[in-house]
DNA sequence: TTAAATTACGAAAACGTTTAAGGGAATGCA
DNA sequence: TGCATTCCCTTAAACGTTTTCGTAATTTAA
């Protein structure tokens, strides 16, 4: 078995028919006789034939390949817990439908620099999924506004299909649970500004108001997602307040580790002395002691739906309905929030 | 700007030259006049031209695309801490050299099933990187023995280039450090059998012997990598022994969480009552309290070297030297191992 | 029996590139 | 001046497909 692939021509020679006939036989066109079809397929199988995606792409203008752009502010790339799960789910769903995935990048050092869009066209992606990018980036903007089908995750762009996690409901669930457990002095260390943060923050304030809780200004602080150090510092600040909160909401589970350390350093116990809540539901959260109360994001659905919607968009081009799919998370009740009398 | 890409022909028309001239001008061949070259390039730039990778691949038999096969026993896929870091590094290095990466899979539901090898040839990958797969899989075997350049990570296959982390040295470093801290009763909960586990286990025994430490049979137990539950159970068993170890080595950092929980559940403190060591150096390890002593794997080098070697192999085909590159980890001394008098 | 319809296949163009081969004009050398 | 070079560009084939159109053979309908 040499380096070269066996082509339609090889099969046509072996079968004594034309290339066109082989192509049609393999693609099950109905203008080919049954016997011929069967014979050709057997020979193709025996010769170890499989199509050449490049030729196919060139001819059909379809690659069966989806581009993935996952870039977070910290450039953690594939090592980002949450997005790794989403991507993994996206990948599985796409592969089940016969699509491969390739990362989009603008590093192409080959000749001249290539924008995301240029790269995407170069590779001929049938569709593109975008998550956790810096939305200010004009390069990203070009990609989104381009003419390749796009689905975005956790961010809504003008007239584009988006799959977003329900941060409004997530934060409301947290607040209502914490309230039910008797807490009235609730602090929130949030991530850096983004649509996700915005949603959570506004839901935080809104729910607080609905519940009749007053949130002092100094109870709300900005750290960054997945930043244990920043969260550690902000937590320390909260603990030094004269009127300490009884419960702290952290940006996410990973960052929570920093906050928890700050609390323990102060000699305080969780949840006896202070309660904490995370966000995301990363695997480790439920393994910590005490188990972290958090919102388990449905990363499986996020990824799968993104893939399904995108492939729909690709294969049924005129289904260009602008829609937004909302995926709810689920409150995981660990042991990090104490019941107190208010 | 329409859906269709601008092609060489469009440029040739715009410039009033032949397609060949445009192609050669853009590829900087030296049989094209300076002025013509410059003019063509300007026009190409202005028209927003970029090559069509499919046509290029078809013609040159090179795709500038690398296939990635990352499958671990638990099918954690991209969510596997360690491999996510390696992959991320591989990706960055590959992209810097103008290569894209696409995942290899055998799910192709399109028509008929496709083996890994079939998929790789279908996509025309210039090279392939393989990590953490089930080596028994005949499908994987076919891929490795095929005629596409391959680099494997953390596993050595016959006459193939491999990048492996130095598990021998890693385990020796741990043992020598723990010994130096006064420990003589050392237990090891290891992962399931694999070349990695084998290397660590044999190094564990060998170093113990060199140090003159006797390892009772019941001090060595099998769990699984990243399996907090199994590690929790094995740890409990160790703690119930009449002659308890003073130090436990866990399969990896993530699994350590389970072990640590078992210890705390017993009311024991780390490191005052018992010492523990992890492996891998995942980000969270140094954020735990106490900070986990572990081997920080050099995932950056693993990924980068794999990419460099693979691209070397691809671009300089006759450099088919069979070699094995060993990447050392670094002992991270946290606070989880106590100094005791033996 | 004959015309029309159906069936089964082939020829050839096209997708966007690269590249070997070729050739006309300008230049170098004697 | 005449011939060989050199320079610059073009023609055309090829990569492996798909697909439109054409057509010969066979079947059906009248």
Protein model, in words:
The structure is a homodimer of 342-residue chains. Chain A has 342 residues and is of the alpha/beta class. Chain A folds into three domains: 43 residues, no CATH class; 130 residues, Response regulator (Rossmann fold, 3-Layer(aba) Sandwich), CATH 3.40.50.2300; 131 residues, Response regulator (Rossmann fold). Chain A is 42% helix and 14% strand. A six-stranded parallel sheet of chain A has the order 2-1-3-4-5-11, with helices on one face. In chain A, strands 7-6-8-9 form a four-stranded parallel sheet, sandwiched between helices. A two-stranded antiparallel sheet of chain A has the order 10-12. In chain A, helix 1 crosses helix 3 and helix 8 packs parallel to helix 9. The first copy, chain A, is elongated and about 90 Å long. Chain A binds a DNA duplex (30 and 30 nucleotides) through helix 2 and helix 4.
Describe the secondary-structure layout.
Two copies of one chain form a homodimer.
Chain A: H1 8-15, H2 19-26, H3 34-47, H4 53-60, E1 65-70, H5 81-96, E2 100-103, H6 116-123, E3 127-131, H7 138-145, E4 150-153, E5 161-165, H8 167-180, E6 186-190, H9 195-211, E7 220-222, H10 228-239, E8 247-249, H11 253-265, E9 275-277, E10 294-296, H12 299-315, E11 324-327, E12 330-332
Parallel strand pairs in A: 1-2, 1-3, 3-4, 4-5, 5-11, 6-7, 6-8, 8-9
Antiparallel strand pairs in A: 10-12
Helix pairs in contact in A: 1-2, 1-3, 2-3, 5-12, 8-9, 10-11
The structure holds a DNA duplex (30 and 30 nucleotides).
